[in-house]
Each structure stands twice: as structure tokens, then as C-alpha cells.
Amino acid sequence: MDWLSHLNYWHWLLLGLILILLEVFSPGVYFLWLGLAAIAVGILYGALPDLPWQIQLLSYAALSLSSILLARYWLKRHPIQTDQPCLNRRGEQYIGRIFTLHAPIQHGQGKIQVDDTRWKIQGADCPVGSLVQVT
Prior knowledge:
It is built from three helices and four strands. It is α+β, with helices and mostly antiparallel strands. The chain has a four-stranded antiparallel β-sheet with strand order 3-2-1-4, with no helix packed on it. It is rod-shaped. It starts with 8 loop residues before the first helix and ends with a strand.
């Protein structure tokens, strides 16, 4: 733990830049907020060079947590608008589409042909060839 007492502001800035760079190569948006928190601690430590390492780490933890929570709150209230809301949600892409039964629905179970795959479905009993809509 002795190495923590030798932290400088540029360590925090470098950590922040590395975390933001990591964001480019990973899914999600968490590294961005962790990186911004590290940069904020670096700026704070640059302004207050006598800040003990314990306060630096506590500041980083508090800023990381608060920035992630604020970002989640903001995104819930202001969702990202897209022209393809079901992208990467394969099951949701089929909702509302109509398919022809490949195998009859008997006892609540049947099969449909979806593109090049047969899917098992549930529903009211129907004969082969009936049109069914995905809900």
C-alpha cells in the first residue's frame, strides 16, 4: 500500500485516458464514466496537491458511482432515439410478423418456418398451413 502514497495527478489523468480508451473496445458505457471520474480526481489533485491518497480513492469511488448513477438516470429519462429499436434483439424483431404453420399446433405446441429455421411456438390448436402472428 506504500505505492498509493506516491500517486500524482498525472497517474489519475493517465488512468482516466486508459479507461476512456478501453470504452472504445468494450460494449456498454461504464468505462467512460470511470475514466471521467479518474480525470476529475486528477484535476482535483492537481489543484490540491496535499490531498491524501485515502481521500483520492474515496473521491474516485464517489465520483465513479455518482457519474454512473446520473448517466443511468439521464438515459432512462432521455432514451436514445433510433430508427432500428430492435437491432441486436432478435426475438423482438419478429413481434407482429405473420407466419404459416409448418407443423400443427396440438396441445398448445407447434412449429413455424422463420426464414431458414424452424421455431417451436405455443398457442391455440390450429391445423398445418394456418397463419399465426407472433406476439
